[in-house]
Amino acid sequence: MKAKREALQSLFTAIREKKVDEDIVDLLMLINSIKGVYTTSSCSGRIGIIEEPDLGAKPLSRWLIKEHRPITFEEAKESLKKAQKGFIFLKSQPPIFHIVAESLEIGKKLHELGLASGFKYTTFKAVKERILVEINGTEYLTAPLGKDGRVLVDDEYLKFAVELGNSMLIRAKSRLPRLKENFEKLKDELGEDELFYEVKEKFLRNMVESEL
To answer: What does the alpha-carbon distance between residue 96 and residue 135 come to, in Å, rounded to a whole number?
Structure first.
């Protein structure tokens, strides 16, 4: 109960600060309104060009461009002008949802739901006495473009990589409506969580009062 309350407060704050991908806000609200379920971190899928100082050095990486929608060749080419040091990659990644289930039984239902919705990399594991489910797709692309500020590919390759990355992103996002539909069915099965509406109402009330 306490963990979900804190997660909901973080979610509503992130939504207010526009740190949540707009195209999955409704889905996240739906998931968190289900009894025994809440999200921790999620992404609606993204494509961009990233600069990594060393292979696998994710914490020190820098996005030259990052969007949750398809990008254009011109946007990609322009972003490469900002490259300075490290390996340069174009990356396309599918939607991903980290969801906590309050029981093993619910965790299994979430796992089956993710797979049935077309997210074939869906997994679940026990972490500190809770069940963490990761709903994840298969549409990952990493295409090397250069190193240390030097673009080592021609425009034809860059166009190809951008088009492929965009098509993979679109394909991955196309599964979101089915995922939402399946969560609506799960809500019918497990019921609504009154805590969600309590935290939501309090958050909205505080927002109104702060604007007065």
So the answer is: 6
pLDDT tens, position by position, 163-211: 999 999 999 999 999 999 999 999 999 999 999 999 888 887 776 666 5
Residue 58 has pLDDT above 80, yes or no: no
Q: What is the pTM of this model?
A: 0.90
11-38 pLDDT, tens per residue?
999 998 889 999 999 999 999 999 999 9
Reduced 3-state DSSP string for the chain: CHHHHHHHHHHHHHHHCCCCCHHHHHHHHHHHCECCEEEEEEECCEEEEEEECCCCCHHHCEEEEEECCCCCHHHHHHHHHHCCCCEEEEEEECCEEEEEECCHHHHHHHHHHHHHCCCCCCEEEEECCEEEEEEECCCCEEEEEEECCEECCCHHHHHHHHHHHHHHHHHHHCCHHHHHHHHHHHHHHHCECHHHHHHHHHHHHHHHHHHC
Q: Which of 173, 152, 149 is nearest to 47 (CA)?
A: 173
